[in-house]
Amino acid sequence: MERANQWHHEVLEQLEQSAEVMRHLASEGSEAILAAADLLAARVRAGGKVLLCGNGGSAADCQHMAAELVGRLSKALDRPAIPALALTTDTSFLTAFANDFGFEGVFARQVQALGKPGDILVGISTSGHSANVVRAVEQAHRSGIHTVGLLGNDGGILAPLVDVRIVVPGPNTQRIQEGMLAVEHILCYLVERYLFQEGRHP
Fold first, then answer.
1. How many CB atoms lie within 10 A of CB 166?
2. Are the C-beta atoms of 76 and 195 separated by less than 8 Å?
3. How does DSSP assign 10-24, residue by residue?
């Protein structure tokens, strides 16, 4: 019984940590989320596409967000596809380029090849310091591509490099990733409404 009580306490503590991140986002992050949704919708409305990059769990988030945009998030809203591409999925390119030139350039090279002026790049980094995301953002700016950073901790070195930054606080990677998933769903929800539900865009 004592052991069961110990683990019950652990479960509650983990859930409370996650809830605290959500409370912080609700009180401190809403303006940045709205600004990012505005920029995403504006770029798509103008004919641009969404590129996404990140590593590990953030790579999975890129694929998740691209799937929601190309498919749909809300079953209640029948809409056209939103052009979005995760730069984390082409294993032949990723492994070839990383083997020949190094992993730090794998996203920047794809931004150079696939991006065009007026597109938007979403860089996801729980540390805020991912070198290959930094290079992708730098290439995006050289290519006339707008940038949004979904970042952990204090935003790291990526925070001042992106046009709009959403910072999920805390040193715990799991909690940051949980907060990021919530933000990603909110962004997809807002972009859908801004683009396809009349009267919802401010």
1. 28
2. no
3. HHHHHHHHHHHHHHH
pTM reported for the whole predicted model = 0.93
The span from the CA of 14 to the CA of 21, in Å, is 11
Helix (H) or strand (E) holding 178: helix 173-196
Measuring CA to CA, which residue among 38, 46, 69 is closest to residue 118?
A: 46
Are the C-beta atoms of residues 82 and 7 closer than 8 Å to each other? no
Note the residue count of the chain: 202
Task: For strands 146-152 and 120-125, give the pairing.
Answer: parallel
Q: Residue 28 and residue 196: Cα distance in Å, rounded? A: 28
- Residue from 186, 202, 199 nearest 73 by CA: 186
CB atoms within 10 A of CB 69: 25
The tens place of each residue's pLDDT in the chain, 202 residues long, gives 667 778 888 999 999 999 999 999 999 999 999 999 999 999 999 999 999 999 999 999 999 999 999 999 988 889 999 999 999 999 999 999 999 999 999 999 999 999 999 999 999 999 999 999 999 999 999 999 999 999 999 999 999 999 999 999 877 899 999 999 999 999 999 999 999 986 444 4
| Domain 2-196 CATH assignment equals 3.40.50.1980 | no
Phi, psi of 168 (to 5 degrees): -100, 115
Measure Cα distances from 111 to 11, 48, 136 in Å. 41, 13, 7
